[in-house]
Design a protein that fits this description.
This protein is of the alpha/beta class. It is elongated, with a radius of gyration of 33 Å. The relative contact order is 0.08. Residues 22-72 form the NXPE C-terminal domain. It is a multi-pass membrane protein.
Amino acid sequence: FKGGDTCEYLLSSGRFLGEKVWQPHSCMMHKYKNSEAKNCLIDKHVVFIGDSRIRQLFYSFIKLINPQVKEEGIKHGNIPFEDKSASIRVDFLWYPEVNGSMRQRIKSWTEGSVAKPHIIVVGAATWSIKIHNGSNEALAQYKINITSIAPLLEKLAISSDVYWVLQDPVYEDMLSESRKMITNEKIDAYNEAAVRILNSSSRNSKAKVKVFSVSKLIAQETIMKSADGLHLPESSRDTNAMILMNVYCNKIMKPIDGSCCQPQPPLTLIQKIAFCFFTLSIIGYLIISLIHRNNYRKNKSCTDLESGEEKKPAISIPNVSTLEMLLHCFCKLGLIMTYFYLCDRANLFMKENKFYTHSSFFIPIAYILVLGVFYTENTKETKVLNREQTDEWKGWMQLVILIYHISGASTFLPVYMHIRVLVAAYLFQTGYGHFSYFWIKGDFGVYRVCQVLFRLNFLVVVLCIVMDRPYQFYYFVPLVTVWFMIIYATLAVWPQIIQKKANGNCLWHFGLLLKLICLLTCIYFLSYSQGAFEKIFSFWPLSKCFELNGNVYEWWFRWKLDRYVVFHGMLFAFIYLALQKRQMISEGKGDPLFSNRVSNVLLFISIVSFLTYSIWASSCKNKTECNELHPSVSVVQILAFILIRNIPGYVRSVYSSFFAWFGKISLELFICQYHIWLAADTKGILVLIPGYPMFNVLVSTFIFVCVAHEISQITNDLAQIVVPKDNSTLLKRLLCIAGFFSGLHFFSAMQDQSRH
């Protein structure tokens, strides 16, 4: 941790990721859209003062506000720009030399009641070098002139943002004869003089002129693509304009993926209460542990000095109490949540933007697949989608999704479409697993529902409190939670149809199919009636859970994207269990699922279907159109995979213990990645070890996986305490949980009121 201001890093250091993506040192840069730029600069006046290079920067800047602007202004004259819709004024003032004229213009803003510009960008030197043929006298005069201007800039910097743009290097081989005297050696001398004078001027001043030196680094990489050796190519000057926009606007707009120049957010009331709670839990656990340790020491076996015999303790060592286990869990959770906060809310660790390359995605995928195959073991049972197989499925899918997120592969459409199928496959398993449980067990008790809801939501609720994020932000958990409740409601409402009842009378099977048809009808209606869907989830208290940025559109989009796949999972479970009950499939060890002929035909169809979907997904040209088709066709590849994985007896009899281990903590991995593996709420990458990308990924991944595993254990331990089997005790706990959420809502309302 070097400390310092991320604004200084943004203005002075960085590197290129690839050819065009600029990565500032230690922080993330937001790519501003026109609407965002207008909202930031509303009622603002921006002035660019300098030569043709500053004019280039001026044009790139105003194109962020209005991309339709053409570079048609007078070359050696002032150029005004105004956006009346947002009351934005941006002016370019032609002052190619640092001289008395420039000083007089700057001085006019410091006198009397003249309105000062909100942002002033100044820079010039190449004209002085050119006109005076690179003479030392010109450099001496340049120093005198800057020395006289520096106090005026400092005075303006008290109320305005003032930037001095250092001169970019030139590509000397391409310079015309009239510009040959502009050498990089001369430019360095002028830049050194400017930096020294401006820094000495601001040494004892609270205000400071910001030196915009990052353009030099950008130019060093790109100036050889210049048309004349002097002026930067368009992509480079656009990068400079975007940096300028980030420096000024990030503290106003506070974009999630723009960590540069953003101050650390203040602790909310709920975060302070959570901090106190975890602190008390840690203190409480330490006190109880010390008391137990002292009791153990007093009562443990000791040796009789006279007889040499060992005396037995009068009191046996007490078992760990519920209170101690509870405090132990919260103690560990408190330490883990501190790490979460430090990683993604405190400005302690560095963050970087993602940058996609094919190798950054496909090489790790190949590596983990080899590892997964290496750890192959025999399954305990050979049923279709047995426990080891579903854990394995969840595990490799989760690892692929993690690599997809950290590599930024969402920009590559074929990969995006295949990842959409993996997310759909998780929901398919939700439909398959919960339907199978209720259908076979017939257990619709409150205990089962509370156990599932607690395990799904505990971590997310804690993160909503600690990280100050809405519930819908962790969209996958609301998705599986709502679908679980839909599955439960479908099967629990009268008449309750379970396998035991249906075996006695085949008509019950038709009754269940009728229920599933009703469910499909409701899904179809809601998917094409956005208004009805939004009305349902806009009612309090549902709105508190499903709103994001003041509306439920994001929730509707996420739900609609995989709207049929849970139904497909339920239907598959029903058909499979019916075939299994009638012994129409063979699930013996090493046996094919069907007869050899049928198995071969189905296997061939499955492979063709799997590849056909991949070819279609790889040929996608438009994300919107493909997303429209995805809910209906994603089940093709999911079913094809299940059949390929289960029809051959040998393949069904083995599994990868490596993938299965990750599958058992897949939910925790998916949620934890938001803050302690990725950064800025998944928009960037957490950097624990700067300068060593591979080593950084290894270290952050190790910590991330350990934390996810620990949280999984904490959740399981707390589930046994918070959700007991005894109904009367469970009812009391539910009342306590209701009181907790009521208090949370009360403090949240207070928080919102104080913000407004």
